[in-house]
Amino acid sequence: MSSDAKQPPHTSSITYFWLNSLESLLNAFVDLDPTTRHQLIHLDGIVVRVKTFAPYQVFYLLFTSDGIEVSPKPQGEVQVRLSGRVRDLVWTLLGLESEQYAESRGHLHLWGETPTLDNLRQLLQEFNLRAAASQWLKSHWPLKTLWQKLSEQDLSWLQDLQPLPTLIKQTRQEIAALKVELSQQQQQLTRVEQQLAQQLKLSKLLLIGMALMITGGIAGTVVKLLS
Predict the structure, then answer these.
(1) What is d(CA 95, CA 11) in angstroms, rounded to the nearest whole number?
(2) pLDDT tens digits, one per residue of 98-116
(3) Domain span including residue 162
(4) Where, by residue number, does the polypeptide cross the bilayer (predicted)?
């Protein structure tokens, strides 16, 4: 929700907090991927009506070039509708299940204006293919616990996921720093190998020189003896 959005009278504080947390989480994941943020340009101004089951909830997504706004009321004309269970929506958004698979299995239902729908599908598919979160989650997060909370309609899953984008970003930074360190070590190793090769070459030349000197000395001695 944008900071200037007003809370509708019928909207409970819990719902408002839930939607605000969801908006924060969605944008945090978008910020992890510059390509995804760039793709939002093609969806600028699009309003998506989202209806979830288990628990039941209806809210709206407004796509802008700056991010995604989540609201209990539509901020414009609805072009696309999305429905499904919360656990299936979360699994898809986190890249743990592809959008195509979720639709083919009937886990998600997505319909609306064709050009807009295609752009939204592409965004979901590309986000999943890049798997900004899925690989990290599989190796760092107790997915069984997350799935259980989603299945039991325990809303604390949203609070649990809030630190994830920051943790993923930190992990990526650590990996990047490690790659730089490995690259520097590789460069140093290459320099050492080059130095060793040069020393070996000089050693061979020195041995050849010594051999020639010894050979020359022996030949001189023989000549003296024969003269």
Answers:
(1) 30
(2) 778 888 888 888 888 888 8
(3) 11-178
(4) 205-226
